[in-house]
């Protein structure tokens, strides 16, 4: 019985995921009970190297450990005289680039992502983040840090900024800003994990280890395969090589962030099979899922804040468009559970825009030089957008605020 294929999970039987599975999945994805059990073992695994660095930071005088981390991050571990063993172990590991990492492929993957400009932010927020809220065990650490409603907009902006950092061409080379962003967020995860492990009410039986390996690779899958699927559903056309290179880029990001290589997808087929396993075991929404979804919708509404009557219209349109994209991908029952508005007119407009994108993308593929030009335009648009976000929200790319995370009592 342990080797018999299991039935498809609900997530893949409705909405855009159902369509994408039929159009793009490489055959029968169904896993077995034995494979489910093996994946679930990783839900009890954390990140010993990063956790040891956080313990070191807590032991040293205030600010000293973080200063040493930043110096090693930007200049390499060999730039430090007699660094603490935990810091040496961490950076010796991340600086020893794995044999399979191919910088040419990583660059091509980054260019393919950058080509779509700020359009890529739609699947990031409406599919990856909103869809991720359906995984209720993964949301417990986020809820546990408190102040969800007050920080939803900032979290969305910081996530977008981080995503742009790690997907910018050239950014994942040692010491570059995307490389630094990946390792800083890995340290944020370790700080959050330490805070959640101090909570007397953390339910390990129900919620697994906080910010565990399965949750981390699941988040990266939302940014890789689910992102690609979302872009395709919005009319963007990727070649087989582009999709493979995007998966490769995120495989390297996952490695930098401490994910066990056993569960890091090496191919698009691997990513699909992992999605099936995660949909089967992790996508179990609860009331915290609703709360996070409501906070994300409220952040979309803020686009019109302080603009009077015009602002109210902008807020209404923003919420309806973002909700429509989420509904089309996540399916009716998931969208209804999360409390997403159901606007058939907005959904029709999204589908019309997707058809327009598909037509434009078809032309791009046939016009010599159009793809390179679009890569330059898209990358420039993303950079300007990131700069604008940084000025409005004063984004701290060192994530120092998150390094001071404290746990909040359970509701």
Automatic annotation (TrEMBL):
It comes from Prauserella endophytica. Residues 123-353 form the ER-bound oxygenase mpaB/mpaB'/Rubber oxygenase catalytic domain. InterPro entries: Lcp-like (IPR037473), MPAB/Lcp_cat_dom (IPR018713). Pfam families: MPAB_Lcp_cat. This is DUF2236 domain-containing protein. The lineage of its organism: Bacteria, Bacillati, Actinomycetota, Actinomycetes, Pseudonocardiales. It comes from the Bacteria.
């Amino acid at each position: 019985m342990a080797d018999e294929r299991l039935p498809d999970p609900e997530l893949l039987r409705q909405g855009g995921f159902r369509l994408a599975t039929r159009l793009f999945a490489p055959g029968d994805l169904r896993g077995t009970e034995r494979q489910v059990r093996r994946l679930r073992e990783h839900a009890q695994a954390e990140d010993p190297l990063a956790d040891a660095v956080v313990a070191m930071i807590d032991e040293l005088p205030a600010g000293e450990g973080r200063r040493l981390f930043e110096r090693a991050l930007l200049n390499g571990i060999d730039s430090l005289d007699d660094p603490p063993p935990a810091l040496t172990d961490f950076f010796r590991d991340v600086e020893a680039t794995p044999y399979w990492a191919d910088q040419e492929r990583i660059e091509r993957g980054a260019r393919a992502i950058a080509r779509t400009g700020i359009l890529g932010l739609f699947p990031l927020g409406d599919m990856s983040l909103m869809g991720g809220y359906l995984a209720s065990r993964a949301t417990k650490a986020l809820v546990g840090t408190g102040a969800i409603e007050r920080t939803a907009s900032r979290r969305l902006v910081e996530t977008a900024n981080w995503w742009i950092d790690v997907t910018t061409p050239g950014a994942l080379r040692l010491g570059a800003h995307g490389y630094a962003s990946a390792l800083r967020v890995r340290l944020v995860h370790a700080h959050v994990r330490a805070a959640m492990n101090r909570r007397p009410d953390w339910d390990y039986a129900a919620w697994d280890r906080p910010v565990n390996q399965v949750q981390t690779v699941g988040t990266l899958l939302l940014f890789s395969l689910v992102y690609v699927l979302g872009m395709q559903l919005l009319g963007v056309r990727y070649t087989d090589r582009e999709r493979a290179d995007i998966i490769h880029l995120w495989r390297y990001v996952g490695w930098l962030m401490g994910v066990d290589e056993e569960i890091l997808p090496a191919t698009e087929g691997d990513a699909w099979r992992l999605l099936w396993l995660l949909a089967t075991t992790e996508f179990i929404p609860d009331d915290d899922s609703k709360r996070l979804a409501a906070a994300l919708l409220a952040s979309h509404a803020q686009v019109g804040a302080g603009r009077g009557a015009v602002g109210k219209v902008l807020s209404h349109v923003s919420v309806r468009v973002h909700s429509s994209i989420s509904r089309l991908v996540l399916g009716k029952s998931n969208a209804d559970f999360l409390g997403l508005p159901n606007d058939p007119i907005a959904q029709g407009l999204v589908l019309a825009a997707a058809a327009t994108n598909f037509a434009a993308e078809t032309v791009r593929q046939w016009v010599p030089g159009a793809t390179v030009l679009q890569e330059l335009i898209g990358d420039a648009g993303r950079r300007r957008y990131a700069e604008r976000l940084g000025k409005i929200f004063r984004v701290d790319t060192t994530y120092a605020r998150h390094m001071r995370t404290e746990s909040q009592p359970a509701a």
